[in-house]
Amino acid sequence: MSAGRVMRSSRTGRAGQYLALLAYLLFLAFPFLWLISTAFKPPRELGSLHPTWIPKDPTLANFRQAFDEQPLLDAALNSLIAALGAALVAVLLATPMAYAMARHRTRLARAATGWVVVSQAFPLVLVIIPLFLVLKNLRLINSMPGLIMVYVVWALPFALWMLVGYVRAVPRELEEAAAVDGAGRLRTLVSVTAPLLAPGIVATALFAFVTAWNEFFFALVLLKTPEKQTLPVVLTHFIGAEGVADLGPLAAAAFLATLPSLVVFAVIQRRITGGMLAGAVKN
Amino acid sequence: MTSVAEAERPVRRVPGGTRRRRVTDHGAWFLVLPALIPILILSVGPLLYGILLAFTDAQSGRTQPTQWIGGLNFRDLLQDTLFWESFRIGLVWAVGVTVPQFLLALGLALLLNQDLRLRWLARALAIVPWAMPEVVVGVMWRLVYNPDAGILNETLRDLGLGDGRDWLSGLGTALPAVIVVGIWAGMPTTTVALLAGLQNTPRELHEAAAVDGAGAWRRFRTVTWPALRPVALSITALNLIWNFNSFALVYVLTSGGPGGRTRLPMLFAYEEAFRYGQFGYAAAMGCVMVAAISILLAVFLVGRLKGGDDT
What we know:
The complex is a heterodimer. By secondary structure, chain A is mainly alpha-helical. Chain A is built from twelve helices and no strands. The radius of gyration of chain B is 25 Å and the shape is globular. The chains are: A mainly alpha, B mainly alpha. At the A-B interface, helix 1, helix 4, helix 5, helix 6 and helix 7 of A face helix 2, helix 4, helix 5, helix 6 and helix 7 of B.
């Protein structure tokens, strides 16, 4: 009898859980659905006092107008260069360091880890003013290399953290076996460790890519001329001085700017949660 | 399991240990340097430089050399009521976002940890806000809050809850409206972190407690929470820091308006530095923010750690 009661109560509990989950998903999804809806609405519907979820008269006019109003293609190209550059350089620099941090408990590695944590606590304004002055002296203001350098350093903490987890997941015994078989240190790294680490490195690079693609504050301060600016900065140009925005093109451009991040995130989704799991287990 | 691994390692290392160790240390330096140099030049350096700037009268585009002015910036800052108002708003925002964010994310993480159908889909959807540029998040919610074409007012009208209002430019509604967006935007990171912590809780213990007749709340208090606490503490601390220092969301949503009601300290300092060119003064604000965060965190962590002893 008691078993039956437990069953019944757990069944209503289940239903409640599904309901709660549904509520969460609605809360998380509805702004994005509304963005898509707005992006495909003609101006007449956008002006209507009773907006609907599904456009009655879907149109691509907003997208065309968005490209006419702002240099979206140039901005997308700038974003792509910045994000690719940042991802590649960050991974190139972070992988050896992560390897050292995971395999050797040196004081240096510990200090670096400490710094990674501490640097999170500082407001960007304290970093951006000196960076602005330094980059200005190096004539790297309003330039892609300057922005990429900043993005690399900014992506390093999380990249290091993810990579350390992945390195720890590669069994030390494999490397030792290779060493016993007479492989040199470099040889071991290249032909034993690197292939096992590759998926983790790709995931980290993609994560750095998304972070740089989405970044706004540094780009806002460091890029001055419109033709150099990245997508997030150009997006804000759709919003006028008094906060009045041309909703249709704004929504269309925002939707397009999100797509690359969403695609990349779909690819690495499992790895991010997995990497976080690994990190949590190790701590 | 870990204790076994730890017990094994020293035994294995004993033969010829010292020499090998020194060699690997040199190797470690070599591996660490490529990342360390940029960190030193573009992270450690600028931070120290920034702290020094707070004690100068540095301005943008000035021809005379900048001078040391001691604590003058800080003395001015003490009397700057606008800054302290912004500071207060920053604290309200940081706490107002972090606390509900944690509670909501905890609920979601507990759900996602169950064996529900379509869990994979829910997990994927739950991290969508994470993938979005902050600017897009801001734009999106502007569309939601839009007084005429926005879905929020339309829904309120449908439900017969009045005509709705201009959420982002109302003096009373702007800050709450912006806080909701902040909660929404930070849900995924918090949820994923808590989910990771949940998967660490011992399942057998959970089942044993259930067999012993412990209710869901009891099981949560006695089994889940103790295992989850370290993760919960660190993600909440990080959220506090991130939220206090946040910029892009509010910049896009309200640019600090109406009448400064949503002007977070970062927005204030940004304007001071890059609109009015007061680099030294803005750097002093940054220093005050760091100090505030440190105190906030210290209070939070000490309080939590003490609270933990009772349970």
